Amino acid sequence: MTVPTLVDTVEGNGTGYAASRLLTFVREDLARADTKASVLLSFVLALPALVVSSARLPDRPSTVGVALLALGGLVWMFGAVSLVRAILPRCRTERDGPGITFYADVLEIHRESGAAGVLAAVTAAGVEPAAWLVTQTVDLSSILARKYRCIRWGVSWLFLGVVGATAGLLAV
């Protein structure tokens, strides 16, 4: 016996099918964003160890060089924190209002009205599956936008950190 998927359930409805496909694309892009941030973070954590282990500083490094190197390292750390923020799970959506699409919604409804409230919210979502899909797509899209914003900021900070550290190593 096969269990019908949400796409099978709303396939007769063009709006539902489109909403289902859009939600699938957003979920796939969420996975790609997490992968990008994870790969970048691995690089970010490995590169300083390689640089420190192979760096040979002179006995009396210049103050400017050390200051630039420290500033580059600090800015690099901001980039790493931004990438960690991209990977960390989100506990909330930006949407205010009705709809149960996220685990925080389930917890909030359960806290307010118990399991019966959660069941009522799920039942209400099942009445209009296309509307529920669109609401979930909006929720996940806001999370995706935040993840990519963190990745962009992280890469920007990393670039500035590399420039500062490189200038510092050249000036030492």
From TrEMBL:
What InterPro entries does its record include?
PycTM_dom
The record's annotation in Pfam families points to: PycTM
Pycsar effector protein domain location, by residue? Answer: 19-170
Instruction: List locations, semicolon-separated.
Output: Cell membrane
Q: What is its main location?
A: membrane
Keyword list, A-Z: Antiviral defense, Cell membrane, Membrane, Nucleotide-binding, Transmembrane, Transmembrane helix
- Residue spans crossing the bilayer: 37-57, 63-88, 150-171
Q: Under what name is this protein listed?
A: DUF5706 domain-containing protein
Organism of derivation: Streptomyces albipurpureus
The taxonomic lineage of its organism, from the top, reads: Bacteria, Bacillati, Actinomycetota, Actinomycetes, Kitasatosporales
